[in-house]
Amino acid sequence: MARVFVITGPSGVGKGTLIRGLMQRFPELELSVSATTRGPRAGERDGVDYYFLEPEEFERLIAAGEFVEHADYAGRRYGTLRSELADRVRTGTPVVLEIEVQGARQVREAMPEAVLVFIAPPSLEELRSRLSGRATDDEAEVERRLRVAEGELEARREFGHVVVNDRLEDALEQLTQILARELGHAPGRD
Ligand code: 5GP
Prior knowledge:
The protein has 190 residues and is an alpha/beta fold. The chain has helices at residues 15-25, 55-63, 82-91, 101-110, 124-133, 139-153, 168-183; strands at residues 4-8, 30-31, 35-36, 51-52, 67-73, 76-81, 95-98, 115-120, 161-164. It binds guanosine-5'-monophosphate.
């Protein structure tokens, strides 16, 4: 049974919201906390939302081989630490990663048993309006993310599953079915 789930796709597509929904439905699912060199947004907590690292510390961890995958995204570094996965893989605890496309490719290479799901927006225009409406990033950051997104959308065919997040409830339902199949049981809670 697959136990490592990778949710990828462009920034603003709703990966985080979908994962929160999945975690309610499958309470045994645990979230891998990523490391990043970007600063915390309002309300984000170190060790909960991310491990917020200085660039030097991030480099040191790369050199020490501590990352399963890492990528540059819109001028910042992001990565999944081995320590987030090792124990869970060993004990068979299902774990979910929310990462961008370059990282998802690296996980696919390193862990062929991982289940990869690409979340796509209904259109680039819709993605733009979601990113702008989020109010966490300024206009320049939104533009940077949209430029990256154009490339990321071309990668959708590389992944085993593609879920279009048009209506959130429908997308969550499709994801739930994928996980139910892989975990071998129906969701525990709704
Ligand atoms: P944000 O700055 O909006 O939190 O994240 C920017 C992008 O980086 C999002 O697409 C997010 O999914 C991705 N990301 C978050 N953590 C990781 C990680 O550990 N590795 C990679 N490759 N991407 C990540």
